[in-house]
Amino acid sequence: MPESHRQRLLAAFMEEVWNRGDVSAVRGYLAPRYTIRHDPGDPWDGQTLDVDGYCERLTASRAPFPDQTFDIRHMSEAGDGVVITWLWRATHAGDLPGFPASGREIRMSGATVYGFDADDRLTGHWQVTDRLGVFQQLSAARTS
Q1: What is the chain's percent helix, strand, coil content, to nearest 5?
Q2: Domains in the chain: how many in total?
Q3: How is 33-102 classified by DSSP, letter by letter?
């Protein structure tokens, strides 16, 4: 699926960092500053993180869903960005505020635009996701 150098980098980043949870791989992909430009519902929305801050975000985000995977469905590139659409699934194995671990599979879809600098390092993202669907799935798990 990846056709360009940046698309291949992004696919590798998603696999190593988000699917495998390899915190040590983050430094190989991120610029010194990473801005979450738009990601409603994400606790880091609107923040600019350094690499250590991004690693903390990765660890915290994966904690309730340690087996999470992003299945990239489409990629395209324009200017300094690469857009991906994806399907996400994970087992709700850790507690979230108001939602004790249920052991149930949770699914979500979304689209993310990743920015790159001149050195092909990730500088941030703009994202839309189905967080309402996740909330509904977590709520159903809590009541069953």
Answers
A1: 30, 40, 30
A2: 1
A3: EEEEEE-TT-TTTT-EE-HHHHHHHHHHHHTT-TT-EEEEEEEEEETTEEEEEEEEEEE--S-BTTB---
The domain that holds 78 is classified in CATH as 3.10.450.50
Least confident of 8-17, 64-73, 132-141: 132-141
Q: What is the mean pLDDT of residues 32-44?
A: 96
Please state, in angstroms and rounded to a whole number, the distance separating the CA atoms of residues 30 and 28.
6
Q: What is the token pair recorded at 128?
A: 């839309």
Q: How many other CB atoms sit within 10 Å of the CB of residue 132?
A: 10
User: Tokens at residue 30, please?
Assistant: 């991120």
Residue ranges making up the domain that contains 69: 5-143
